[in-house]
Design goal:
mainly alpha
């Protein structure tokens, strides 16, 4: 199996993860700050970084690094809010 096939597959799975996240939020099946939404964003962006990096599409790598940063920040805020609610009870 050619190595490009794995790279291309990673890219398409990344696209599917990001589109699924967007569709779930747009149809109100997930909240924008939910852990699942953010996890789909991280997974999709990581896979697209692999694909874009391999093909040297550096602007795409850059936007996906930023996308991961935003998702990780949102996950950290979610965890902090949840932790604070648990302590207050």
């Amino acid at each position: 199996m050619p190595p490009n096939l794995w790279i291309d597959l990673a890219g398409w799975i990344g696209v599917a993860a990001l589109l699924a996240a967007y569709a779930l939020v747009s149809t109100r099946r997930l909240e924008g700050d939910s852990p699942l939404y953010q996890a789909l964003n991280v997974l999709g962006s990581l896979l697209l970084i692999v694909n874009s990096g391999y093909y040297r599409a550096l602007p795409s790598v850059g936007i996906n690094v930023a996308w991961i940063g935003i998702a990780l920040y949102a996950l950290a805020r979610y965890r902090t809010r949840r932790y604070n609610v648990t302590i207050q009870r």
